[in-house]
Specification:
The structure holds 2 protein chains of 2 kinds.
Chain A: E1 4-7, E2 10-13, E3 19-25, E4 32-38, E5 42-51, E6 54-57, E7 64-70, E8 73-78, E9 87-95, E10 100-103, E11 107-111
Parallel strand pairs in A: 2-11
Antiparallel strand pairs in A: 1-3, 3-8, 4-5, 4-9, 5-6, 7-8, 9-10, 9-11
Chain B: E1 3-5, E2 10-14, E3 19-21, E4 24-26, E5 33-39, E6 46-52, E7 59-61, E8 64-69, E9 74-79, E10 88-95, E11 105-106, E12 110-115
Parallel strand pairs in B: 2-12
Antiparallel strand pairs in B: 1-4, 3-9, 5-6, 5-10, 7-8, 8-9, 10-11, 10-12
The chains are: A mainly beta, B mainly beta.
């Protein structure tokens, strides 16, 4: 499982509230990613990080921000949650040297 | 932009039958990587294979095999002698690796049901 944990695993929140999801890895990988999974869309990249304090946008970054202050933690924040952000969120890391991308267990977020 | 198409939304086969999951990709780059993942009913994503664009050799791992054909931009996945435990959603994905930074573009997945 590449030592990836996500917290919380499930969350229900109301529209307009801020939400932060955490991804934690124990193997010191440089590259980390946040994806969302929605029916009919597969998984889509939200943001990614290529090192501490180095992040960039993915395909569906609107409404999301990220931070990485330590190698092991990559945070995804919804500043003001909307119902369209109801989804399952997966964190991933690239494992050196084969660069095989492994995923965390996922967080199911429901915005009511 | 890259695109991955998995035209088969759902497939059902009887146990012990062979089944092939199709994956067609689009990219203008000559260097790219292709992936397959399995998502069982429990929801986690399980890495199955990563293949680079310069290696067209077919890969076999137990009952699983992959057929990569650049001429048709396809990376198909075959399960031989299917088992109930193979029931899952399978995703094909593409990345343009940039010194280890792999931003995956996923297909929409194929839900495979193995009937006992």
């Amino acid at each position: 499982d590449a030592g990836i944990t996500q917290s919380p695993r499930h969350k229900v929140t109301e529209t307009g509230t801020p939400v932060t999801l955490r991804c934690h890895q124990t193997e010191n990988h440089r590259y980390m990613y946040w994806y969302r999974q929605d029916p009919g869309h597969g998984l889509r990249l939200i943001h990614y990080s290529y090192g501490v304090k180095d992040t960039d946008k993915g395909e569906v970054s609107d409404g999301y921000s990220v931070s990485r202050s330590k190698t092991e933690d990559f945070l995804l924040t919804l500043e003001s949650a909307t119902s369209s952000q109801t989804s399952v969120y997966f964190c991933a890391v690239n494992r050196d040297p084969a660069y095989e991308q492994y995923f965390g267990p996922g967080t199911r977020l429901t915005v009511t | 932009a890259q695109k991955v198409t998995q035209a088969q939304t759902e497939i059902s086969v009887v146990e012990k039958e062979d089944v092939t999951l199709d994956c067609v990709y689009e990219t203008r780059d000559t260097t790219y990587y292709l992936f397959w993942y399995k998502q069982p009913p429990s929801g986690e994503l399980v890495f199955l294979i990563r293949r680079n664009s310069f290696d067209e050799q077919n890969e076999i791992s137990g009952r699983y095999s992959w057929n990569f054909q650049k001429s048709t931009s396809s990376f198909n996945f075959t399960i031989t002698a299917s088992q109930v435990v193979d029931s899952a959603v399978y995703f094909c994905a593409l990345s343009l690796s940039n010194f280890g930074n792999e931003k995956l573009t996923f297909g929409t997945g194929t839900r495979l049901t193995i009937i006992p």
